[in-house]
Amino acid sequence: MAHSAWPGLPQAEILRDGGSNQYLVSSDGGATSESLCEGDILCLIPTGDGNQDPKDYVLLYVSTKDCDTKGVSKTADLSLRKFKIKQPPKELSRYMLNANPDSFFGDIRNPSNRVELSVIVSVKSGTCEAEEFYDRILKDLLSSLGISPDQHRVYFTESERWIAEFASQVLCKKANEGLAQSVLLLSGDGGVVDIINGIFGLPQTSYYVKPKIGLLVFGTGNALANSSKLNISNSRGLQAVFHGLARNIPTFVCRCSTGSVLLIDEGRSTEEMGTDEQGGCVVHGAVVASWCLHATLVADSDTTEYRKFGSERFSMAANELLVPSDGSPPHQWQGKITIYRRSPSGELQSETLGRQTHMYILATLVSHLEATLNISPKSDPLDGQFRLVEFPPLPPAEVKKIFGMAFDSGRHIEHESVGYTEIEGLRIDFEESDPRWRRICIDGKIIRIPEGGWMEVRRETREVVDLMIRL
């Protein structure tokens, strides 16, 4: 890439600063220096025309007011930094951006070999920082890479349905024509799931090419991102976009009895769901399918007021469910649970969970529901294994102990009351009269099942999108 993409950049030197992933960027002849965490490096770009050894490189990284490798800074404290570097440390060579037509951006040094790029900014995700990150970091970054405004499209979400509609009307249509597409998605897990559902709603042709998703993490729980190790630096997932590999996102399909509805607008309104040939309601997921305590706390905390507290909203809602403020005992959910497994010969088998009351029922394809909440410690990133975590009604103190163990490297699976097993799917037949206790959670989306209804989840065999991750 020619120097014209970044005129007048200052020259700097990268020096190791004590720790294994700490550096100093020294500029102005050593008069100025600033800290650099390795996790915040975006890329090193060789200058020149690609036909000769570069004389120098361009270093792009995200700078923060406090180089803290233990946390992710607020977007307001971040800025994009650019320097020319003559001799980068050898150990940073893995951040070199080379010409590769199969990468997320295509061949970044040859505009004719770039893929079609869309940028989706989910304005209201999590603590509403996505738009600010685009303005402070991403817009300048794309320009620095030589990706001009006419070479990509930027979209700001306008409604809860916008991403799913874009996926079906734009992404799926072009994928079915065999067009390679990349999507920079500034969102939480919900944005990924919306894309998956938008595409699954339409048939795929034999020409279908899976879109690549570069997830820049701005949700609340961020289970998919945390389980894929995307949310561990101020780059918010950009390192995986530049240097990762595209891997299929495993999914499951959830079918519910007729009359099930999606709850929207903080539970004040409902929306019809997609249906299958038999008239049942259908939705796809990539993270969790849950009932009981997990689904209810996610639903109860899905308000503007609760979201101000970030991921803390979940523990706040859980505490109210375990120790209700009116002094009543915690609810015991009623229903029949059927578990599906594959025998060693591949035959599908079923068994019924030996109780009718429950406190926790959660099937998951990921390891972490939050950064340190390791709900399924045997799960690896995008391994496609569906696992069930469940336990019966227990005293509030014991439930809190179990969750404390889950936050301690997933030790809750050692608790005598916790069931943890690999499954092919499960079915729930609900025996609750109050609609509050018939809410299920599919990747953060809340569905209310009609009285006497059921839901069933199974692993999905079809593949629709890839996620950029670093292995």
TrEMBL record:
<dbReference type="InterPro" id="IPR001206">
    <property type="entry name" value="Diacylglycerol_kinase_cat_dom"/>
</dbReference>
<dbReference type="GO" id="GO:0001727">
    <property type="term" value="F:lipid kinase activity"/>
</dbReference>
<dbReference type="InterPro" id="IPR016064">
    <property type="entry name" value="NAD/diacylglycerol_kinase_sf"/>
</dbReference>
<dbReference type="GO" id="GO:0016020">
    <property type="term" value="C:membrane"/>
</dbReference>
<dbReference type="Pfam" id="PF00781">
    <property type="entry name" value="DAGK_cat"/>
</dbReference>
<dbReference type="GO" id="GO:0046512">
    <property type="term" value="P:sphingosine biosynthetic process"/>
</dbReference>
<feature type="domain" description="DAGKc">
    <location>
        <begin position="112"/>
        <end position="260"/>
    </location>
</feature>
<dbReference type="InterPro" id="IPR017438">
    <property type="entry name" value="ATP-NAD_kinase_N"/>
</dbReference>
<dbReference type="InterPro" id="IPR050187">
    <property type="entry name" value="Lipid_Phosphate_FormReg"/>
</dbReference>
<protein>
    <recommendedName>
        <fullName>DAGKc domain-containing protein</fullName>
    </recommendedName>
</protein>
<dbReference type="GO" id="GO:0005737">
    <property type="term" value="C:cytoplasm"/>
</dbReference>
